[in-house]
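#lab-general

N.A. 3:47 PM
ok so I finally got the sequence cleaned up, no stray characters, all 405 residues accounted for. can someone with queue access submit it? mine expired

B.Y. 3:52 PM
send it over

N.A. 3:53 PM
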Amino acid sequence: MSTALDTALETLSISTALNEVTEAGRLDPAEYDAILLASFGGPEGQDDVIPFLRNVTRGRGIPDERLEEVSHHYRAFGGVSPINAQNRELKAALEGELAARGIALPVYWGNRNWDPFIPETLQKMYDDGHRRVLMLTTSAYTCYSSCRQYREDIGIALTETGLDGKLQVDKVRQYFDHPGFVLPFVEGTLEGLQKVRQALDAEDGSRDSEIRVLFATHSIPTRDAEAAGRGEGEPREFEGGSAYVAQHLANARAIMAAVAPAVEWDLVYQSRSGAPHVPWLEPDINDHLEAIAPQGVKGAVIVPLGFVSDHMEVAWDLDTEALETCGELGIEAVRVPTPGTHPTFVAGLVDLICERTVEHHIAERPHVTDLGPWYDVVPAGDCRNFRGDKPVIAEAGVTLGTTHD
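B.Y. 4:20 PM
back already:
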């Protein structure tokens, strides 16, 4: 396996060239005094589930009875989402990597929907004497919920805490095609493919025509997808009509070119929610499995390409529902790990931090697709919020409304 992995990693094309959009949206390095690890958050017990779901759906007027109906995947795991424990592990891994490089930046952790909440974390950072913070999120791709909403969270938190103009918060770029994020998927896809071949008793690849690699990511409303990468001054047209879709497709192609160019693959979606009449990205992974099984597919490698860690959407929608679907269809299936705390991923996150800092600065911005590297400064209007305008973190952390990554 090590020889095959070495070959795959050597095959992966990594560039440091900047496109015109990235060059124009690049910020000079600055002197930051702390790091904020921002994430979605999740319940840590049965009593937390409904309050957590209230936070997730705030402002939509959804009654608790309906929330209880959709809480079953959390209930099945004792009301505990894996995400908080994984973020604790990631925070510790980041602290270890920073210390190993001699980088004296403390790491704080704040969540969008559960304790520790972002406003309280920002207040703690300010009380501890920090004044310029660099935010790293656990979302790699470009869309409203992965990018703009985090900037809104910070803008709202600075307003609510009275820290606007006192605490500056900037955000690292979206890192969907940074090698630190992609390389663990290359490794996992290769290992998953080998396991499926073994299960089909065809380690030589003789039955690869019966194997399909499915790159899975979170479905989002079609309208949100179409708004991704559509900011003012963004001249590019994106495959699938969306930066969100195009980024996933580009990553999948890069991974398969390195791992198994002859094996067929598809981009599929999961975790759809919301009103049935609202269009979301398709195909759903379970529907797609049912569609390809009659085509002679006997093995599936499920790659959670859209996810940083094995949180609830992975544990339930993939490890429970999708693998059950595979079992019912007679498909041998393996789910590939997410980057989690893979050393390559953790090192890549610290590299992203160093791209923006004066001390320990890294000037090169490696990327494995032609779409990257993504810009530091998000064009105005990018990843539009169709639910109503909200303040977002601003340039220099002074005036709300500008759109810095």
